[in-house]
Amino acid sequence: MPRGRYSLHDPHDHTPLAEEHFQCAPGPSGWRYVSRRVTPAGDQSGSVDLALDGLGRPIRLELHAGDWQVRGAALDGVTWVRTDPTGAHATEGNVRAHAFTGTSPAFLVATARLLRLTPSGSATRVRLVALTDPVLAPRTVDQSWALLKREAHPTDNGPLTVEEYQVTALDTGEQHAVHITGDVVLAAPGVELEDLDSPPSAFP
Question: Which domain of life, per UniProt (predicted)?
Fold first, then answer.
């Protein structure tokens, strides 16, 4: 069960945004990721609890950012309930999409797990509902993912397989690289892996 810490920063000007302390593990039903987020000043700023089924679909999502909260799952596409800071109002949403995404590295692992790509030049299109800080407002985005290569790197604990993805935002054409090993993101725009206390888990 990997435990570790990601640093999150603005991908454009590299302003530090938060540290995400996480643990994750595959289980009988799929994969689960839990984390808490801390600002550079040391304040708690949010949390993530994401569970996937064996096919990589989100069977439970609970996100907190500030006083906002979203609970969601894959149901007739994806369905969610967003609660405002006062707790007085809750709005429901449903979109014909494949999964959720957001600022947490968990969503990159989840999308890669959902698509299960093989190394090739062809890309796969995916529709996601983005829930981003600070208010978790839902926005539907279309992306294409391609697995460019899969390489084994020697380590003290044996070879580590690193996958390099090319992710394209279909509305802007902007492309970026995402490097994942097992259920841990090594690097992505705005994400750096700072600490990892055990090797990543390998999906079956």
Answer: Bacteria
pLDDT single digits (tens) 4-51: 999 999 988 999 999 999 999 997 789 999 999 999 999 999 999 999
Question: Could you tell me the CA-to-CA distances from 174 to 143, 166, 189 in Å, in that order?
Answer: 10, 10, 12
Beta partners for residue 131, in sequence order: 102, 138
Q: Taking a C-beta distance cutoff of 8 angstroms, is the pair 186, 179 a contact?
A: yes
Extract the tokens encoding 115: 């698509």
Gap between the Cα atoms of 47 and 198, Å rounded: 22
Is pTM, for the whole model, over 0.85?
Answer: yes
DSSP helix/strand/coil, 202: coil
Residues 6+ apart with CB under 8 A from 180: 108, 109, 112, 162, 163, 165, 186
What is the DSSP secondary-structure string of 64-109? EETTEEEEEEESSSEEEEEE-TTSS-EEEEEES-SEEEESSTHHHH
Do the bridges between strand 44-52 and strand 137-153 make them parallel or antiparallel, or are there none, so unpaired? unpaired
Q: Give the model confidence (pLDDT) of 175-191 as tens digits.
A: 999 999 999 999 999 99
Question: Which contacts of 17-22 are long-range, i.e. CB under 8 A and separated by 24 or more positions?
Answer: 17/103, 17/133, 17/190, 18/45, 18/46, 19/194, 20/48, 20/104, 20/105, 22/48, 22/105, 22/106
> What phi and psi values does residue 155 have, to the nearest 5 degrees?
-140, 175
* Chain mean position to CA 170: 18
